[in-house]
What does this fold into?
Amino acid sequence: MRVLFLTKYGILGGSSRHMVFSYLEYCERASIECKVLPLFDDYYFSFRLLSHPATARQVVPHIGYFMFRLLQRVKAVLQANSFDVVVFEKELLPYFPYGLESILERLKPRMVSLYDDAVHIGYQRHPSAVVRLMGRNKIERIMRLSAHVIVWNQYLADYARQFNSNVTIINSGVDLRRYRLKTEHDCEPHGRVIIGWIGTPNSYPYLEQLEGVFRYLALKYDVTLRIVSSIDYLSANIRLDNRRWSIATEVDDLCSFDIGIMPLADDAWTRGKSAYKAVQYLAVGVPAVGSPVGVTVDVIRDGATGFLARTPAEWIERLSILIEQPHLRAQLGLAGRQLVENTFSIQAMAPRYIEALQQSTSIPNKGCR
It folds into this structure.
């Protein structure tokens, strides 16, 4: 079986890495011949930080790059009939109207679409009326057209099943071979506790909701807030340590955390998130505290692998418990690692991922509702 993966990014893009690149080795072991053609290669990240939608100032100096990548994507689609299955990440061209997907369908490869975010909500809430218009019903139409839809949580599955009966849920997963357990050598000297967060700057508003919590904890405990991202997080309320994200240092940075946090608002967009941060924390044996939103409640099991917190008072209480009890941190962290090994690892999810691709060859496009 020959499969073409049309990803949004190269391996440096988080969504493409955990939805496609992490599974390629296992697909090839299953005698699936894989080819990956990203829309944006790794050069894209030399001028885009993903902290907000691309601005004209970012796009115009690189207009030649964008046009070249667009033409490469169109070329890839036109050559797709030499593959049995074409897998693409969310949509073929972001911020373009529906259309290229219809051309791909006419070329007759089986189409599989992947979703780890509520992209339809992103279009509905976009500040530009033009983008809202171009994206209206786009994701629904793509899901209807697909032979199979793979999603990364139940919320997205419920949405997809309105338009397609062939939906597979894959849990967020990390590669257990990369993610080592935190050891004593990773701990700060003198007992300072590191509260850690990893992610892209577009999620900083969720951290800002905890500024009052950070102020309280900094006054009472010897703590540092460590942020691993592409630009600095700013706070006057707590000691900060900003680190630049790198795929080479990612796991070591995670192991430097004593507690991982994942604050979220509770809305239609965040309910579609994959809780990947929380999985990363648990994978290295670091307990997590997070908002009880969407699939997060399946990863952070309250009192077992970490704690859930809704209000600032609950955040203070849960974080204080973990700051004061290092043995509890270790206990919850080990339980979290076990959960990841069994349920939230690439190794555990690969058979289901491969099965979905194999099943798609016997399902016609448009063969759904």
Summary: The radius of gyration is 21 Å. The first helix runs from residue 14 to 19. The CA atoms of residues 26 and 350 lie 6 Å apart.
